[in-house]
Amino acid sequence: MANGGEIWTEKYRPINFSELVGQDNIVKRVESLTNSLNIPHLLFAGPAGTGKSTLALIIVKHLYEKNWSENYLELNASDERGINIVREKVKTFARTKSLGQVPFKVIFLDEADALTPEAQQALRRIMENYSSTCRFILSCNYSSKIIDPIQSRCAIFRFKLLEKKDIEKRLKVIAEGEKLTINEETIETLYEASEGDCRKAINIVQATASVSPSITSDLVLTLMSNAKPKDIKVVLDYALSGDFVTAREKLLDIMLKESISGQEVIKAIQKEIWNLQVEPDLKMKLIEKTGETEFRIIEGSDTFIQLQSLLASFVLAGLGK
Fold it and tell me: Which domain range does residue 303 map to?
């Protein structure tokens, strides 16, 4: 085993647990369990792009080093998730002994909340019967979708969305390695676009780097096809001033030129409401109306009609009605 809690990737480059950003408390506890070989079944719950799958791989590669692939089975959302897979593939892997010094294998079930209720019932017995030869690591976005008997058999770790400093740390490492230029303004834009999802931020950087090694906020917003905050602010300013026709034309122009969906416009409007120079009580009413409009769009109502209705609400609010 590598020194200092390090593991090997496919190219055998050592990686330390501490390189996983934003989940310091979880990493420390999991690293301690891994070093002592006293690993229970684990349940990682939290939003996408926060390090759940990465931590599972770090654990496995730390335990088995270069032989990790022989002692590790991963099933993700693209695989069959019914009861037959659990009874056959999972059970067959779990009942065999591990190769090497570690006395157990590891099965990683990514997006375990997609397992059918029947499959989860079958899994609970396998987890109990084969705990001497196998450990399970379950990853999910919503732990409430995992049945209580499985939750009671696992040590639960709840991941949180990453903060700006965490994503900034990872992006700077990537920028240095790939010789990219990313300034503070761009990092702020990337963080807002990713909403705490590190994987999404990295994918945006990769897409923009294919266009230019100098990554700017404008380039990020262009490739993201999101509504620019300054454009949305112009629309809302016209609406609050009582000029419904101009606000409507500006909004239509944004949606057609940038190919932006109604739901993306709604999210951009919701964010921009907080920057408006209006009374807090009025902001609350506008946010409530924005949520109602989003619900109607999701339910299948005509997108542009609903957005016009929302702009009309802003106009009336600006007129004090």
Answer: 229-318
